[in-house]
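As the work plan foresaw, the team has encoded backbone shapes as discrete tokens. One protein thus recorded appears below exactly as we store it.

:::
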Amino acid sequence: MKVILDPQAGTCGGVKRAIELAEKELTEHPKDVFVIGDIIHNEREVERLDRAGLKTIHRNELEELHRLALNNRARVLVRAHGEPPETFKRLEELGVEVIDGTCPVVNRSQELAQKYQQEGYQIAIVGKHGHPEMVGIIGHTDQKAVVVQFKEDVEKLKPGVATLVMCQTTVSQDWFDQMTRMIEARVGEVVVKDTLCRFVVRRIRKLPNFTGVADVILVVGGLKSSNTKMLHASCKAINPRSYHVVSPEELNRSWFEGADTIGVTGSASTPHWLLDEFVETLERWMARGWPERDVGDGE
């Protein structure tokens, strides 16, 4: 049995930048660095940075920053998903130093939504309710943008009004196109701005080149990661023997029965050290024998 690591796998530029900013700040200020929400949607990486000293807080805890930080020197990292303008304003009022790790692609979406909203357009964003990226973008429209996740969300849009249609950066192209057609049927003529992350789009396009050479595919990524879920769905559509996994402890030997090749890939929020961990674990088990007790459930 052979293990192949997807050459296209690894974190996108925005995620990589946010992690590097966190590591730099933790080196220089190990006791006073905070991030609003999980820095990325990957539990294992969040745990690693937590052990290094990164403190995760929520927006409703901003007022407590001075109490939480040692010597009142709180430094707050804004993660790649971005934040609404009011968060930056409040941090400035609190005298907190801000390290802006907003992904440039997300930043472009925020600016685009703000520009069109100020020009009188209603803004329709295809994406998931409550997703942190969406919260930040909506904040740049004075909370007026409409999130379109379900068919009934389309009914919230006003017919006959100039409408900008954009999307969360990590949704699938097919879903974006499908919802755009529904929005257009509701409101009439629309301006469509494809705000998908090109890194993610390229990964999906090149996926068949990788999935076609492996009998079993392991998609490594966080449980809360939209990008990982989309990648897993894309893999499974090509190869039904595709499994979404977070840690090697989830692996089940039965998944690999009759397989000659195992492919390991990961989403835009999956650091390379996690991919290497899976490859090394599988190769070690192949050489020394598989654990007697399997844990995975096949999901």
